[in-house]
Amino acid sequence: MTINLPPQVERIVQDAVLSGRYHSAEDVLTEAVALWQTQRAGAITAGEQRREAIERLKTFGRRHGLSLGGMTIRELRNEARP
User: Fold this and answer.
1) What are residue 11's phi and psi, to 5 degrees?
2) Cα distance between residue 71 and residue 67, in whole Å
3) Spatial distance between the Cα atoms of 15 and 18, rounded to a whole number of angstroms
4) Confidence of residue 75 (pLDDT cuts 50, 70, 90)
5) Which of 53, 52, 65, 16 lies closest to 5, judged by CA?
6) Domain extents for the chain?
7) CB atoms closer than 10 angstroms to residue 28
8) C-alpha 24: how far from its chain's center?
9) Model confidence over 41-56: pLDDT tens digits?
10) 72: which of 14, 18, 44, 66 lies 20 to 30 Å off by Cα?
11) According to the model, what pLDDT value does residue 49 have?
12) 58-67 as b/e: b if 16+ CB within 10 A
């Protein structure tokens, strides 16, 4: 596979190799992709947790006859943000 990097990213990769921390550009990119996968997995988990929490709130509201007065959960969440 051939990858064309923007000049700024290419310089970062070259600097990482020249520093001696990595043996090759492939090592730099392998670590970068591994970190990206870990971050992405965490983001998906956080998103799933948020969706589950919203579903629990909806169930609680229905079970106890609570209403948001016509607001959606998104509107309520946005109103609560500074």
Assistant:
1) -65, -40
2) 8
3) 5
4) confident
5) 16
6) 22-80
7) 19
8) 28
9) 877 787 888 888 888 9
10) 44
11) 84
12) eeeeeeeeee
Tokens of 42: 């965490």
Q: What six digits make up the tokens of 18?
A: 């020249």
Please tell me the total number of residues recorded for the chain in this structure.
82
Helix axes 73-80, 25-63, angle to 10 degrees: 110
From CA 36, how far away is CA 7, in angstroms rounded? 20
Tokens of 76: 């309520």
Q: What is the distance between the alpha carbons of residues 16 and 30, in angstroms, rounded to a whole number? A: 13
**Residue 38: Cβ within 10 Å count:** 10
- Determine the Cα–Cα distance for residues 36 and 64; give it in Å rounded to an integer: 42
How far is 13 from 2, CA to CA, in rounded Å?
15
